[in-house]
Amino acid sequence: MKLTLKQTGLAILFFLGCLATAVFLTINSIWLFDINISFLHLRTATGLTASQMHTDYVQIINYLQNPWKTALKFLYFTSSPNGLQHFKDVRHLVMINNSVGIILLPICGYALVSLNKKSLTWLLITPIKLMVVASLVIISLMIVNFNQVFIYFHELLFRNQDWIFDPNFDPVINMLPDTFFLECFMLFFVFFFGLLGLIYWLGKRSLRILHNNPQD
After folding, report:
1. Can you tell me the distance from the alpha carbon of 33 to that of 42, in angstroms, rounded to the nearest whole number?
2. What is the pLDDT of residue 214?
3. Among 5, 26, 63, 154, which residue has the fewest nearby CB atoms (within 10 Å)?
4. Nearest partner of 28 among 98, 105, 96, judged by Cα
5. What pTM value is reported for the model?
6. Residues 12 and 111: beta-carbon distance below 8 Å
7. Per-residue confidence (pLDDT) for residue 120, from 0 to 100
8. Residue 162's closest CA among 94, 57, 81, 71?
């Protein structure tokens, strides 16, 4: 499947826009953590109540998302300097993601409306298929060996080893097991595929319009 220059540009635009949106939605899905408190037996792992863990998890999300919150302070966990540095590194990435989303979402919205009015949304069908195939490859790798993918993901994004938490110094990791992060990745792809699915549906609809009105 060869892409034209216009399709490539649109693909990059919508890929980044959908990526930023899916990441934002996933990070802010605090409900997923709340569900896992019982499912992953986090009370036993941490010795804290569900309310206490919820409170400190909200502290993490607020720190990652709120540009005016400059320090992460837990109410029920102690933290090492390396652990706090990792949260700071994650915060920088989240801020970049949010900035990309703020810039690109209006552009994506305008481009999508414009393409839809001209019945040209079909140009996005092939790029979306390629994105889905690539995503399915990543998902397959995660299912086969999530730990290795998780390690590679961190080595790719971070230049230090601060992401390797020692429960003795950063007990917060006890309420954030690998299974929870796997669920976060899966939720991300649900949001990502949902956004791509909407665009794909609009693309298919534009093809039907062109087929029914060939003179246009």
Report:
1. 10
2. 62
3. 5
4. 98
5. 0.92
6. no
7. 87
8. 81
Q: Which residues contact 67 (CB under 8 A, 6 or more apart)?
A: 95
The answer to whether 20 and 104 are in contact (CB under 8 A) is yes
Instruction: Say if CB 203 and CB 123 are below 8 A apart.
Output: yes
In one-letter notation, the amino acid at residue 132 is: V
- Count of other CB atoms within 10 angstroms of residue 58: 13
CA distances from residue 172 to 47, 75, 131 in whole angstroms, order as listed: 11, 11, 35
Mean local confidence (pLDDT), 20-42: 97
When pLDDT is averaged across residues 55-76 and rounded to a whole number, the result is 95
Two tokens at 28? Answer: 């802010």
Distance CA 72, CA 62 (A): 9
Three-state secondary-structure class, residue 185 = helix
